[in-house]
Amino acid sequence: KGGMEILQATEKLIAEGLDFKLNIVSQLKKGEWKDEYITAADMEKAKQIINKHDNVITHYFSLPSTEIMNLFKQSHVGLLPSYGETYGYVVLEAQACGCPVITPNMPPFREFNDNAFGWLIDVPLKERNGTLDSDLSGENLQLFQTTLYSGLYKTMKEAIENKTLLKEKAVLALEHIKNDHSPERKTAILEQIYVDALQ
Q1: Backbone phi, then psi, for 125, in 5-degree steps?
Q2: Among 85, 89, 84, which Cα is nearest to 69's?
Q3: What is the C-alpha separation between 104 and 88, in angstroms, rounded?
Q4: Which residues pair with 60 in a beta bridge?
Q5: Residue 58 main-chain phi, psi, to 5 deg
Q6: Which are the contacts of 132, defined by CB distance < 8 A and separation ≥ 6?
Q7: How far apart are CA 44 and CA 48, in angstroms?
């Protein structure tokens, strides 16, 4: 769900001579949700790209959550260009490590990612059941994939080349977590609501 577009953007950036490293944590196998858009040929091509560029791409089949957090702390940018997620806690985990994230602009990502402290790729959206979601039917799938790829290429290149912007987004991502996702702060707000209701 977005992995092939990451690899395609990575190949183009490597061809342009940009200096960066890509870490992938994935078993590279089909799951259940939204994976009907991923073919066996896609999976084989992904493996070939990873093997071809093993000097740039490090692939972990699986890591304990503590090691994933350490990887975020050592990384400059997180990538979750998924075709769809139920929530995407990994984005919040990356931000809490000062690692801004690149995601599509669809729900749920735009609820907790923003161009101020990360990157939102504008993908084609369709209203469904009162909410906006990616439209992956028919020809729209190819449009979505092309848009996602070009958005990834552009934002990954910007992150690699603009260190000042990258640092600003990293600081703001951490502040976003402290201000908007602090358990202590949320508890205090909830407690105040109850206090106000009882008065």
Answers
A1: -125, 155
A2: 89
A3: 12
A4: 25
A5: -110, 125
A6: 106, 107, 125, 126
A7: 6
